[in-house]
Write a structure and sequence with these properties.
By secondary structure, the chain is of the alpha/beta class. The protein has helices at 20-29, 55-68, 82-93, 121-133, 142-149, 155-162, 170-173, 201-211, 226-229, 231-241, and strands at residues 5-9, 35-37, 74-79, 98-104, 188-193, 216-220. It has 10 helices and 6 strands, in the order βαβαβαβααααβαβαα.
Length: 251
């Protein structure tokens, strides 16, 4: 089991650097675990035109980054809008390489629908207005990001989270989803973020239904950006699901 890696896929308005607190905890709790936090095309280490990028581009890039990192078998974790990307990776690589798919406070539209249809409240209103322009969205205003992502955080965690905001593709948010090739034999875990304002519990449960169900649901008493607010708890959950038994683990 020691060779099983952990691949972390960020959501909208974020990049791979949002996972830094969780990556640090994984390395602390289980040194030597292969960990990769990808940058989806259109930010940081993966430049692309956000006006034209597609979900397929994100899936292709994620797989290329996994291969470049030398990771063979792995669990894959998707946060928020990675509910688009992660099923595509699982569909392409299947159970030969993917040990488990884990979705964290994720958004999964019904088959044939788009991600913008899943976003509740004021965040959904903003997302639909941005999508209507046809132009890439700038990083979210700090007050809205703080409300949507940072409830329950310490001052330091809020500062970290708000310093990691990135522009986003609106073309992807209105792209119809297609999961017809998704392999059901790969185990599925959903981490339900109980105080989530960006993806409420009710919204997440609708996403679970849209996905066709999961094998387990783990409640985590946190807001949307659990990888920043509760990195130690999240790391333990991921390590346990990846076969790395941690002393004292009760999750």
């Amino acid at each position: 089991m020691a060779d099983v890696g952990i691949v972390l896929v960020h959501g909208g308005q974020h990049a791979g650097d949002c996972w830094e607190p969780t990556v640090a905890e994984i390395e602390l709790q289980a040194p030597g675990t292969p960990v990769l936090a990808v940058d989806l095309p259109g930010r940081r280490s993966a430049p692309a035109d956000l006006a034209t990028v597609t979900v397929d581009d994100w899936v292709t890039s994620t797989i290329a980054q996994i291969d470049a990192a030398g990771i063979g078998e792995f669990i894959i974790v998707g946060h928020s809008m990675a509910g688009l990307t992660v099923p595509g990776v699982v569909a392409r690589l299947g159970p030969a390489r993917v040990r488990r798919m884990i979705l964290l406070g994720a958004a999964v539209p019904p088959q044939g629908r788009s991600i913008v249809d899943t976003v509740p409240g004021i965040l959904g209103w903003v997302a639909r207005r941005k999508a209507a322009t046809g132009r890439p969205a700038a990083p979210m205003p700090r007050l809205l990001a703080r409300y949507s992502f940072c409830n329950g955080m310490t001052r330091e965690q809020r500062a970290f989270s708000l310093s990691r905001l990135h522009g986003e593709s609106t073309s992807v948010t209105i792209e119809p989803t297609d999961r017809t090739d998704l392999d059901r034999s790969v185990p599925r875990t959903w981490i339900l973020t109980l105080r989530d304002r960006a993806q409420t519990v009710a919204t997440q449960r609708r996403s679970i239904e849209a996905l066709g169900g999961v094998d387990e649901i783990i409640d985590l008493d946190t807001g949307h950006n659990a990888m920043i607010s509760e990195p130690a708890k999240l790391a333990r959950i991921l390590l346990d699901r990846g076969g790395r038994s941690i002393p004292g683990s009760a999750v």
